[in-house]
């Protein structure tokens, strides 16, 4: 249910809102929410967004530039770190990864609802992920899918249909994701719309090469062949080609270092201060 919170806004207060993702083409529910959000713009002092793509979208919709503050989503770079050789070996042993396998991660929720998730939430691109995995398998890569998160029934069923082995695990604590990242060779971000996502920054901080569609913060963080691989559209063949090139990149070790360096500026200690400096403190001084 949408709460039209604009009716509760007092003229004596200053308001900040966040807008991380969404566009009318994403569906009637999203379009309705955006319409209601836009109706409150005159009463908002600041709108925080994370990605330059979304910042430009807000500007195109007529949101004044003076109200927009772009602050990236942060990541704990002290928690998410590249593995040592021993840590990588132990992570792959824990999850029974076959020798020589190319382990391709997808850590998200991409099914409708909180049940089995057999109906895909297409905005998250589960269909693109499994098609990309199928093409990579046909190209001769010994791929194994590594999944976390609930409602992955569509993905696991399709992987089974394509006879692609997969690991699906649930973590008890966010920090437990680190060992999951340590087991990966590659991360595929195949969404059609995103605000971040967190898995992008966590992958890069953990030294995992990323192939991403042109969504969320990916264009702000990924330079092709330098910090990862960026795909303009949603073509699984292009994703496969980029993945193969990335894995075969002779400078892959340096790319991992570059990717981690790119997200060091997004550590929560820095991003938290930016929220205060750019969004909240100026309004307090004006009060």
Short description:
It is built from 11 helices and 9 strands. It has 287 residues and is an alpha/beta fold. The protein has 2 domains: 5-74 and 267-286, no CATH class; 85-264, 3-Layer(aba) Sandwich (Rossmann fold).
Please characterize this protein's 3D structure.
The chain is of the alpha/beta class and 287 residues long. The protein has two domains: 5-74 and 267-286, no CATH class; 85-264, Glycogen Phosphorylase B (Rossmann fold). Helix content is 40%, strand content 13%. The protein has helices spanning 28-38, 52-60, 85-94, 126-138, 153-161, 177-182, 198-205, 218-221, 236-247, 252-264, 268-286, and strands at 16-18, 46-49, 68-70, 102-107, 143-148, 166-169, 186-189, 210-213, 229-231. It has a six-stranded parallel beta sheet, sandwiched between helices. Strands 1-2-3 form a three-stranded parallel beta sheet, sandwiched between helices. Strand 7 (186-189), helix 7 (198-205) and strand 8 (210-213) form a beta-alpha-beta unit. The longest helix has 19 residues, at 268-286. The model is unreliable at 1-5 (pLDDT under 50).
CATH class category name of the largest domain: Alpha Beta
Question: From N to C, what is the helix and strand string?
Answer: EHEHEHEHEHEHEHEHEHHH
Tally of separate domains: 2
Sheet of most strands:
6 strands, parallel
Which terms would index this structure?
9 strands; Rossmann fold; alpha/beta; 2 domains; 287 residues; three-stranded parallel β-sheet; six-stranded parallel β-sheet
